[in-house]
Structures are given as structure tokens and as C-alpha cells.
Amino acid sequence: MADGTRILLFGGTFDPVHNGHLIIARAAAERRGFGRVVLIPSASPPHKPSAEASADDRLAMCRLAVGDDPLFEICELELRRQGASYTVETLNAFRRQESEADLYWLIGADMLADLHQWYRAEEVVKLTRFIIAARQPWRDQLDPIFQALAEHFPPDVIETLRGGVTDTPLVDISSSDIRCRVAGGEPIDDLVPAAVADYIASHSLYR
Ligand code: ATP
């Protein structure tokens, strides 16, 4: 049963947002009973080199990707903040805005191994519960990752993290592959919503 007081937050560079993001977010929302999914494009990702497309373009593509789908909302908080985007600050801002809500944070399982390196990670795991979208090949490799994380987080946090693992479909799409394809003149129609493909073409992004 979907419940509006439980919000699934989904941060990413979204450079560009693609069908993989939308499919796993929808699947996680269905499996875990979320009625609200909030996409949060990051300003400057702490773990990655800077985005290629501007903040405005990435935001515009997120808006086009979700259209008027009532499941999705877009949050501009990180884009409007100066400097790097830290999840702990975003979560604190959400806490202030949505004091009644239970906040969950969706990540792909490929992000799990580095969780302890997130800025103020011990606070992050108290502010939110992670929903971990387990795409292959990561699903088979989660045990050693949890064992390694146990060096950095207490047992109750590890148990909660394990409880967040959620089966999502395997979608072999990444933003970096899409950028390469566009640069190489290859089609991306099956990889992003049509409105996003049109936007990339008409704004000559990733060339
Ligand atoms: P890049 O190829 O530039 O690294 P990306 O496609 O991984 O980008 P991000 O915006 O960095 O996209 O990802 C945001 C979140 O979405 C991350 O938690 C990532 O693990 C997850 N994610 C991205 N693509 C997929 C996918 N195909 N299946 C499941 N999770 C995904």
C-alpha cells in the first residue's frame, strides 16, 4: 500500500537521466510501497568528475523524463546550493521541510561499497534508510560488501542496510554510455524517454 508520508529520494548526476533510473525507481517504489519518488539532481557530485551537461539542462531533462507522472517529483535543492552536493545536507533540508515524513534514499547496489566514504556517513545512515536496487552483477556480490561495511558501521546499521536490498530489474543502461553514444553519433532512442532524446538533440548536448 503506497503511503505519502514515506518518501523515496533518488539522488544522481542524471547526466542524462535515463530509462534505467526510471525503471528502478518505479520498481523500488512498487515493491516497497512508496507513493512519492523525488529525483534530486546533484550540483557537483562529490564522488565523480563534474557533470558534462549544465545543471539547467540536467534539470530540464529530469522534468521531461517524468512528465506529469504523479509518482515522481523533482527537487532543485542540490542544484540551487553552492558547491558540492552532500546527501547529509539534503536530508537535513528535507527533514525541515517534511518533518512528518519517513525518508528513504535509493541507490544502485554499485554505490553500496563506498557508503562509509560518504561525507558524514554515520549521520546519513541515521537520517535515512537506504533502499538498495540490486542490479546484477552486484546482487551476487553483496555479502562481501556488507562484511567490509561492518568495519565502519555498527551491526544494527548493517542489518538495516541488508533489509533495504530490493530486487529491481536488470537494466543495462548508464549515463556514461549514453554520452559516448551521442558523441559517436549512435542512436539512444531505446535508452531515454523520447522527450529527453529530443532535448539532447535540439540542445546539441554530449557532442
Ligand atoms: P554514469 O554512467 O555517469 O556513472 P549513472 O548511469 O550511473 O551515471 P547516476 O546519475 O550517476 O547515473 O546514478 C544515480 C543513481 O542511479 C546511482 O545510485 C546509480 O547506482 C543508479 N543507477 C544508474 N543506472 C542504473 C541502472 N541501469 N540500474 C540500476 N541503478 C542505476
UniProtKB/TrEMBL annotation:
Keyword check for ATP-binding: yes
InterPro entries in the cross-refs: Cyt_trans-like, NadD/NMNAT, Rossmann-like_a/b/a_fold
Domain Cytidyltransferase-like: 9-181
A molecular function GO annotation: ATP binding
GO biological process assignments: NAD+ biosynthetic process
Keyword Metal-binding part of the UniProt annotation: no
Keywords on record: ATP-binding, NAD, Nucleotide-binding, Nucleotidyltransferase, Pyridine nucleotide biosynthesis, Transferase
Pfam families named in the record: CTP_transf_like
Pathway recorded for this protein: Cofactor biosynthesis; NAD(+) biosynthesis
HAMAP family found in the cross-reference section: NaMN_adenylyltr
Name recorded for this polypeptide: Cytidyltransferase-like domain-containing protein
